[in-house]
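Repro:
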Amino acid sequence: MNTVDERDIDPLEKMRQIAENFLIVASWGFKESFRSVKPEIIIYNSQWCRLSLIWGGWDMLGGNSIQIRYGRLHAPNNEATINWNGEECYCWHDFDYVLHFLDGRTPIDAAKLNYSHPSTDPFYEPEFRKKFSRRQPEWLALMHTTIWQKYGQQFFELFDLRQPELWQKYRNFLTDVYDIEGRPPEIEPPLDKVC
């Protein structure tokens, strides 16, 4: 019988273990660059981008959870937005629309698929989720690792400050997607304002 209480862990140590043992960040050129106790965040930098692991906390139904976000090298440690080239914009990003962009999908197709993607859909299948019951950090890390293995360096290079033309193409793509989907008026800045 397992008597270890899943709430009785060090969040920063758990995220470090996830980064080193599941994401294997060192093999992708990431090194720890920032650590915060409150809120619990660990950030890794590579030559292309930043990777943020954010502790989501404990939930009675799901157990412990984390978030994984990507930022360009100018992304601040503790802020979700910055003023970049005169506009407020988001500097930490999910991978959902990034994958559609890298796949060469049209904004219409990306809007239809929304957060669904052939690389990530299997992770949401009930049998797969069951294998990771109450182990969301490992489940999420495996999903990101699968993406990294499929797209390789191309995935990280999208965020590279040294490739402003590529980033601008992605921004234009997002603008087109949100022109199709619509922008929730209560969200400021608009979701397609990214830097």
